[in-house]
Amino acid sequence: MDSETLEKYKKAGKIGSKIKEEVLERIKPGMKILELAEFIEKRILGLGGKPAFPVNIGINDITAHCTPKFNDETVIKPGDLVKIDQGIHVDGWVADMAYTYCSEKNELIKVVEKALEAGIGVIKPGVKISEISHAISGAVEGSGFGVIVNLTGHGLDQYIIHGPPTIPNMKNDSQQVLKESDVVALEPFVCETNGYVKESEPVEIFSFLQPRPVRLPEARKILDLASNEYNGLPFCKRWLVEKGLSPFKVSFALKQLEVSNSVKSYPVLRERSGLAVAQAEHTIIVKEKPFVTTI
Ligand code: CO
């Protein structure tokens, strides 16, 4: 990794950790998730980064891919388990991080943070994926809880938020190894017992797949933004409405784009039996002493 890239990874990570601090000072029951998402996305820009994806705010069993609608009225309630997954990029070099807030003391949060730390603790050049998974799942099982089985950590690269390798939070026997300067995000999700996410409504997040001839002017505009402004990274309906497109036309155009296979959608992921889920995530550059960019 050249020093310029390293500096950009570091800058993105610093922006993320600063915003986390600011969010944890402000967040409280009664706050709208829309207000929270707008605060985070504005701060990312204000601090010199760009959102690598729309801020995900998942409450309780809503586990991933949930970003507020443009007119979202959802309010944080006392005792809600609120997962905030924020991505920042500087010229495409991404800091991916998540944390969980609850107005009450919550054991799941403690355990998920401990599991993340355990995973980071074994990272070094040459470590097997299975060793990282073992450390994470060991910390969770040791506390008597479970993980979301079908969500994983992942690699990062320029303008790529979910690249290889896949890093399961469940024990496995992967012999694949990480090498010096690989960049990965570890991302345990903890619940009462092992859980699974399934796709659910609504669908607010999309990303560019490939150019296609489209007639509808709104569809053309969205495709242009998706590829040139968002650089293939995920975006959401709310961002398009903020750009002056009508909500109805945005939904209509996105349906057409999805059918023509030029964008991909990310439906909300919910724990299938309604278990409340806590999440923690950091971005790490693999070194003899792992460098966590998002602390
Ligand atoms: Co991630």
CATH architectural category of the largest domain: Alpha-Beta Complex
CATH topology of the largest domain: Creatine Amidinohydrolase
CATH structural class of the largest domain: Alpha Beta
Helix content: 25-40%
Order of helices and strands: HHEEEEHHEEEEEEHEHHEEEE
Class from helix and strand fractions: alpha+beta
Number of helical regions: 7
Low-confidence spans: none
- Taking all residues together, what is the mean pLDDT? 97
Write down the Rg.
Answer: 19 Å
Ligands and ions found: cobalt (II) ion
Largest beta-sheet characterization: 5 strands, antiparallel
Separation of the first and last Cα atoms? 20 Å
In total, the number of domains comes to 2
| Broad shape | globular
Strand order of the largest sheet: 7-6-8-14-15
Word description of this protein:
The chain is of the alpha+beta class and 295 residues long. The chain is 34% helix and 29% strand. It contains seven helices and 15 strands. β3 and β4 form a beta hairpin. The mean pLDDT is 97. The structure holds cobalt (II) ion.
Question: Short summary of the structure?
Answer:
This protein has helices at 3-26, 33-46, 107-121, 129-142, 217-229, 237-242, 247-259; strands spanning 50-59, 62-64, 82-90, 93-101, 146-147, 152-157, 160-168, 183-186, 189-191, 197-208, 235-236, 263-271, 278-279, 282-285, 291-292. It has a 5-stranded antiparallel β-sheet with strand order 7-6-8-14-15.
How do the strands and helices of this protein lay out in sequence?
Elements: H1 3-26, H2 33-46, E1 50-59, E2 62-64, E3 82-90, E4 93-101, H3 107-121, H4 129-142, E5 146-147, E6 152-157, E7 160-168, E8 183-186, E9 189-191, E10 197-208, H5 217-229, E11 235-236, H6 237-242, H7 247-259, E12 263-271, E13 278-279, E14 282-285, E15 291-292
Antiparallel strand pairs: 1-3, 2-12, 3-4, 5-9, 6-7, 6-8, 8-14, 9-13, 10-11, 10-12, 14-15
Helix pairs in contact: 1-2, 3-4, 5-7
The site of cobalt (II) ion has 5 residues, from loops.
